């Protein structure tokens, strides 16, 4: 009788212990964005390097997610394949300020893992007039003519003219931009001054002699209203300058 009771108790203990053993959690795997940077500001290439520990099977697909505020959800924008405990992912994106993460699916004995989120400012070169002119003006019949999209799809080219002794300017919204790069071609029959302004406050300028080319580049961090201006210094017919202008922006 005692032996029978002892056997029954042993069976009950084993039956109760089995569910506890199956409830042991899977080992944890961690994922992390080690670095994220713009590697080609002209094409808009972002390169992300992630670390995965413990290392998954070589060639494991690792997606890169971007948070889309308008949709209020994560969206896969690219993916890479693991090599050891690392993965490199590239994607082409317009200028933006977005939040990113990488993820890895379950892979026995490890559960799925998601990296901590990282906010990243992605600066890309774009035409100065992509978002249009805010205003234009000057003196002496000023003309600030942006080349139409059919002829200048980058929205970076314009011609600036005025009468003798006059000047011409145009304003653009520079919010989210940090650098301005301007190629200038002086078609004037004389001397002109080309300048960049923060609103109406002059930032930098260059003088150009007749039929010359040059660059006018400047750090415009913090400038929200950028003005490009051409003024006559000494000419027979008035200033005439062609420009090809780019901004480095997150928008």
Provide a quick synopsis of the model.
The chain is mainly β. It has one helix spanning about 1-20, and strands at about 30-40, 45-55, 60-70, 75-80, 85-90, 95-105, 115, 120, 125, 135-140, 145, 155-160, 165-175, 175-185, 190-200, 200-210, 215-220, 225-235, 240-250. The protein is elongated and about 85 Å long.
For this entry, give a set of tags.
mainly beta, 5-stranded antiparallel β-sheet, 2 domains, 6-stranded antiparallel β-sheet, 55% strand, elongated, 251 residues, Immunoglobulin-like
Please give a structural write-up:
This protein is mainly beta. Strand 15 and strand 16 form a beta hairpin. Helices cover 8% and strands 55% of the residues. It has two domains: 30-122, Immunoglobulin-like (Sandwich), CATH 2.60.40; 125-134 and 161-249, Jelly Rolls (Sandwich). The protein is elongated, with a radius of gyration of 31 Å. The longest helix has 21 residues, at 2-22. The chain contains one helix and 19 strands. The strands form four sheets. Strands 9, 11, 12, 14, 17 and 19 form a six-stranded antiparallel β-sheet that branches. Strands 3, 4, 6, 7 and 8 form a five-stranded antiparallel β-sheet that branches. Strands 10-13-18-15-16 form a five-stranded antiparallel β-sheet, with no helix packed on it.
């Amino acid at each position: 009788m005692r032996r029978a009771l002892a056997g029954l108790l042993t069976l009950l203990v084993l039956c109760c212990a089995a569910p506890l053993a199956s409830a042991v959690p899977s080992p944890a795997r961690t994922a992390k964005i080690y670095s994220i940077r713009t590697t080609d500001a002209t094409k808009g290439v972002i390169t992300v390097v992630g670390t995965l520990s413990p290392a998954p099977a070589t060639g494991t697909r690792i997606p890169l997610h971007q948070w889309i505020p308008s949709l209020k959800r994560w969206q896969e924008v690219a993916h890479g394949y693991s090599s050891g405990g690392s993965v490199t992912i590239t994607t082409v994106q317009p200028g933006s300020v977005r939040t990113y993460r990488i993820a890895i699916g379950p892979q026995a004995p490890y559960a799925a893992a998601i990296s901590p989120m990282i906010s990243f400012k992605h600066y890309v070169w774009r035409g100065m007039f992509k978002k249009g002119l805010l205003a234009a003006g000057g003196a002496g019949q000023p003309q600030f003519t942006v080349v139409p999209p059919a002829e200048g799809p980058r929205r970076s080219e314009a011609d600036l003219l005025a009468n003798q002794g006059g000047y011409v300017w145009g304003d653009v919204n520079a919010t989210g931009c940090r650098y301005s790069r301007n190629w200038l071609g002086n078609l004037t029959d004389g001397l002109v001054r080309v300048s960049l302004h923060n609103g109406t406050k002059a930032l930098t300028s260059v003088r150009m002699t007749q039929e010359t080319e040059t660059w006018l580049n400047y750090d415009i961090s913090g400038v929200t209203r950028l003005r490009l201006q051409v003024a006559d210094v000494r000419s027979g017919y008035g200033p005439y300058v062609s420009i090809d202008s780019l901004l480095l922006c997150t928008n």
